[in-house]
UniProtKB/TrEMBL annotation:
Coiled coil: none annotated. Part of the outer membrane protein assembly complex, which is involved in assembly and insertion of beta-barrel proteins into the outer membrane. It is a lipid-anchor. This is Outer membrane protein assembly factor BamE. It comes from Pseudoalteromonas marina. Residues 35-102 form the Outer membrane protein assembly factor BamE domain.
Length: 119
C-alpha cells in the first residue's frame, strides 16, 4: 500500500512538472522566418504598368493571396513572432486591368515607380 502511495505521489509530481514546463516562457522556440522576405532593392525594380508575370519575376509569388480580391497581392514577412525583436514587414501591390498600378506598406516606393519600363 505504501508503494502505491509513493508511486501516485511521483506520478502527480511528474504530471505537474511536465504540464508546467509546457506553459512556461523559458521553453526554447526555434526562430522560423515566415512569408516573403523582400529587400528594398527588390522593391526598387517595380514600375507602374508591369504585368503580373513581371512582378512575379521580380518578387516571386506572394504567400498570402486574397480569394475575394485577385487584384491585390500581399507580400508578408515575419520573424521572431511574439518576441522583443519581432520583425514584421508587408508590401501590398494593386493591379488594374492586369497591370501594376500602386504599392503600399512598409517599403519605400521606388523613385522611378511612375516611369513605365517601356520608356
Amino acid at each position: 500500500m505504501q508503494s502505491l502511495k509513493t508511486f501516485s505521489l511521483w506520478l502527480i509530481v511528474a504530471l505537474t512538472l511536465s504540464s508546467a514546463a509546457g506553459c512556461s516562457s523559458w521553453v526554447y522556440r526555434i526562430n522560423i522566418p515566415q512569408g516573403n522576405f523582400l529587400e528594398q532593392s527588390d522593391v526598387e525594380k517595380l514600375r507602374v504598368n508591369m504585368t503580373r508575370d513581371q512582378v512575379i519575376y521580380v518578387l516571386g509569388r506572394p504567400i498570402a493571396t486574397d480569394a475575394f480580391d485577385n487584384n491585390t497581392w500581399r507580400y508578408v514577412y515575419s520573424f521572431n513572432k511574439g518576441r522583443e525583436n519581432e520583425q514584421h514587414k508587408e508590401l501590398v501591390i494593386n493591379f488594374e486591368n492586369e497591370k501594376l498600378v500602386s504599392l503600399s506598406g512598409d517599403y519605400d516606393q521606388p523613385e522611378n515607380f511612375n516611369t513605365p519600363l517601356e520608356q
